[in-house]
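Working notes for the structural subgroup meeting. M.R. asked for a predicted model of this chain before we commit to crystallization trials. I am recording the input and output together here so anyone reviewing the notebook later can reproduce the run.

Input as submitted:
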Amino acid sequence: MDRRGPVGRRVPHVRGDEAEPQQQLAASGLGWTEDFAAAPVKAIGALEVPAALGLILPPLVGVADILATLTATGLGLPMLGAAVTPGRRKESKMITVNVVLLALAAVLARGRFGPHTF
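Returned structure, recorded in token form:
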């Protein structure tokens, strides 16, 4: 059965416990996934993994520490967008989480690029 959503996108239906990953994300508290097609949600998830590795691995290994700085700087814009989307949905808990993550990325970038690098 093929149902169409408000913008003409296919809306999957759930059979028993076989919820699609996007619906599972929405059920776990990430309601913003309901507003996006599957491709952008998957792309965001796929980009978060190398970003996390880029924050952790270079300082841990001691090679190319600038990569962690650049990754923290690059994460600023997606985290800003991640704070705006729940704001439109009136999900204050998720706004707080994303603002904290944005602040941590900003502190890391400032600490690495600033006058007193650590």
